[in-house]
Amino acid sequence: MTRSGVGRLTWWAPAVLVLGSTCTLINGGGFEECATDQACGASRVCVQKYCLPMPVQCRRDVGAFDKPDSIRIVAALPLSEGLDGGAVDDSEIAGLNAMELAIEDVNGSGGVDGRLFSLYVCNTGRAADVLVAQATWAVRELGAPALITSGSGQTLAAAGTPAVADAGTMIISATATSEELIGTFLRTGTIWRVAPPDTLQVPVMVRTLLAEPDYAGSTTMAVLYEDSAYGRGIASGLRERLVAMGKSSEIRGYLKPIDTRQVVGFLEAFHAVAARPKTTIFVGFPTEIVPVLDAARANPALSYASGHRWFFSDSAKDPSIVTAQTLPQLTGAIGTTPAQGAGTAYADFRSRYRDRFRIDANSFSYTSHSYDAAYLVMLSAAYATREKGALTGGRMSEALTKVSVGTGTSFRLGPTTWRDASAALAAGRSVNLEGTSGGLDFDLDAGAPSAPYEVWQVTDGGTFTTVRLVTP
Amino acid sequence: MARCLAFLVLALAGLAHAAPNARATALAKDAERLYKDGQYKEAAKLLEEAQGLEPNPKFLYNIARAYDQAGELQLALDAYRKYVSLPTSDSEPDLVKKANLSMDRLRQLLARQEADSRVRDAEKQRLEKEASDARARAEAEAEKARRQKAQFDAKERAQADSQATKANGRKVAAFVVGGVGVVGLALGLTFGLLSNGSKQAFRAATLLSEKQLRQTETVTQAVVADVSLLVGVACAVTALILFPKGEPEGLVVTVAPLPSGGALGAIQWAF
Predict the structure, then answer these.
(1) For a FRET experiment, which of A75, B147, B148, B195 has its CA 20 to 30 Å from that of B180?
(2) Complete DSSP assignment for A163-179
């Protein structure tokens, strides 16, 4: 081996060579990938300075994504039927709009001690497994202390998600009304609803059926319901009351996708020999209501002329149920839903909502409830972070026990009252909140307020009108 | 010349005075000739031989004279003393007188010679003593030098042995520390690569817990790699310092230029 060459090194050379070759392998730093979501691109979020991918159906919606200390709220909503191009649920979109309005109102008012809110939205496609995955991500990865859900089944699925249960994440739903949720609330203390439970809606529905001339004389009443927590809860309540009243009734549940012919066949057989008027109470959603009504319109036993009337629950109040084919049967049809216009704050909300989204909030059932749900989450955050407390679901839930106990200062939810209301809660004082959906007098044995109901009706123009408000 | 003449006359007169012996006469003549030629001692010998053959006061006096001329002072004095000790009948007053004068002179000369001899002897003894002393000193110094040299040699050997022992110890220590250094560098390289892999896994992680786990893993491995590399380099440098210096011994790295413009490195152990 030659020793001639450019240079000759001795002992220390190998060390220097090895050190030189390995120094690039030392990875003591470079772990901070981001400070805000914006640094992570559109499909990822910044969590503890790491960029983490969001689930496919989740996205950043509105809020302070350019702030490192924003308070994160996740709304897991069934924005469409399924995830493969299913029909968009306009009612959920309307509710999401209301949440966005609430976030903008609060952020515009300064948030909580300068910390603004960010809303992340996940489309569950109304699939429970998808929702569970999204909720798990929201809690474990994003660190969201609160989830906003929609519908009783989805809310129950979220409550049963291990990650959510382990973290004590606060769940609030604008649209869930099933009485099944009462037990869950009593067990966990973290599952809240803005709309009153169906245990209150069923009596309102029965009272309305008895009071409205088109329905009052019905001796046969079919109950067609979606076989879900929501549908089963209302259907079983209705059956008990209808039987008690001596009505001839039959209940029939259906699963998705609905078998229209079978459902119509059942209704035809049930109503074929019934005397006028005859009523079908449809506890379902527009995606099932429209095809059933379309199929039923040509059936003599189910036609308007035959004296058949449709009666709906809250989930049906959606402009999408009104089509050229369904309008003849829907004209004059009545339904009930938790009141939107019961509160004094509603008018202002409705106006601002229309200005912002060019949509009438009154066209859907739970628009104002969605605004209130988001607002309540943010108020809860203000309470939880008082005295530098931890922003946990448990502490946020504790805030709602301070709401509307009747002895506190009254506030109407809206952008102008945020500072005072949040300051009062942050100071640990009780408050009496007047939501856009009505009074938010939470029943701590149910996790939901006891609020008025609205009796709505489809006009001959295909719009919705409020007949009256009913207190349960 | 006057002395020669006197010696001749006396010799011949002696021969004339005594019963002549041919051999003695011949010896006397030869002695006379030698005397004239300045060969006084030979002449004295011949006269002694002639005296032995034919005792003659003249021969005796001439023997004294010849030895006197030859510088044999004691022999000459002995011969004069014999001559003056002869019965007055056998000696001549004039010669006796001369003999006494010569004896006085000779005695002085001998005394001086003896004194000189004593001085010389003393000087000789002094010189011999000095030489002896010098030799003794030289020997002592030589002995001292030998002892010093022996001590120096012993010290040198001890030092050399010590250095050799120390060098061996340092060599062993250098190899041990160098081994630790190699292990450290290998560990550093290994954990550096592991850390790099964990960093890639960190980047690919999609869950918070996985990110945190991979970060911890990466940092831990990086720390181990850093420490190992530092220990490795420190040990390598220490081994370099510890290793005894000398003709290229140990690891030699050569770098040779390649035609492409790059360089080819090679590592070689040399013992």
Answers:
(1) B195
(2) HHHHHT-EEEESS---T
Task: Give the mutation candidate from A22, A23, A45 for the B interface (greatest B CB count, under 10 A).
Answer: A22
Who among B209, B219, B232 is closest to A28 (CB)? B219
Q: Are residues A465 and A427 in the same domain?
A: no
Q: Any idea what the Cα angle at residue B264 is, between residues B259 and B265, rounded to 5°? A: 160
pLDDT digits (tens, 9 = 90+) for A168-197: 999 999 999 888 899 999 999 999 999 988
Q: Determine whether the interchain pair B251/A11 forms a contact, defined as Cβ–Cβ distance below 8 Å.
A: yes
pLDDT in tens, B108-153: 888 887 888 888 888 888 888 888 888 888 888 888 888 888 888 8
What's the CATH number for B2-91?
A: 1.25.40.10
Q: A50 and A186, same structural domain?
A: yes
Q: Which residue of A has its CA nearest to B224?
A: A26
CB contact under 8 A, B254 and A1: yes
Classify the C-alpha dihedral A445-A446-A449-A452 as positive or negative: negative
Domain carrying residue A80: 37-197+365-439
- Strand duo A464-470 + A453-458: pairing: antiparallel
Nearest to B192 among A2, A13, A26 (CB): A26
Angle (CA) A9 A10 A16, round 5°? 75
d(CA B266, CA A7): 11
Complex prediction ipTM: 0.74
Same domain, A372 and A394: yes
